[in-house]
Design a protein that fits this description.
Number of helices: 0
Helix content: under 10%
Mean pLDDT: 95
Strand content: over 45%
Order of helices and strands: EEEEEEEEEEE
Length: 115
C-alpha cells in the first residue's frame, strides 16, 4: 500500500509559478516511475510529467520548457516546479506511483491560473 499526499496548489496569476509536492508513505527508492497528472473539468486526466529513478523527466508537449519534475529519494518526495503558468494549466493535479504493478494516486491538489 502506498499513500501519496500532494500539496502546493493554489491560485496564481498567469505568468506566475508554483511548486507542487508529493509525499509518499514508503521509500520511493523501490518505485521506478512516478508522475504528475492533471484533470480539468470536463476533460480526461492527462500525463503532465514523469520521472524514473535517477533519471530525467519526460514531459507533455504542452508543458515542456515550463515545468520541471524532480524527485528526492532520500525524502520520499516528488516535485513539480511550474513556471510561466497559463490559464489552460488550471486543473486538479495528481501524483501517481506504480508499485508492484498497482497504480496509486494521491487525492489531488487544485491549481487555478487567472488571466
Amino acid at each position: 500500500q502506498v499513500r501519496l499526499v500532494e500539496s502546493g496548489g493554489g491560485l496564481v496569476q498567469a505568468g506566475g509559478s508554483l511548486r507542487l509536492s508529493c509525499a509518499a508513505s514508503i521509500s520511493i527508492f523501490s518505485i521506478r516511475t512516478m508522475g504528475w497528472y492533471r484533470q480539468a473539468p470536463g476533460k480526461q486526466r492527462e500525463l503532465v510529467a514523469s520521472i524514473v529513478s535517477h533519471g530525467t523527466g519526460n514531459y507533455a508537449d504542452s508543458v515542456k520548457g515550463r515545468f520541471t519534475i524532480s524527485r528526492d529519494n532520500a525524502k520520499n518526495m516528488v516535485y513539480l516546479q511550474m513556471s510561466s503558468l497559463k490559464p489552460e494549466d488550471s486543473a486538479v493535479y495528481y501524483c501517481k506511483a506504480v508499485y508492484s504493478s498497482i497504480d496509486y494516486w494521491g487525492q489531488g491538489t487544485q491549481v487555478t491560473v487567472s488571466s
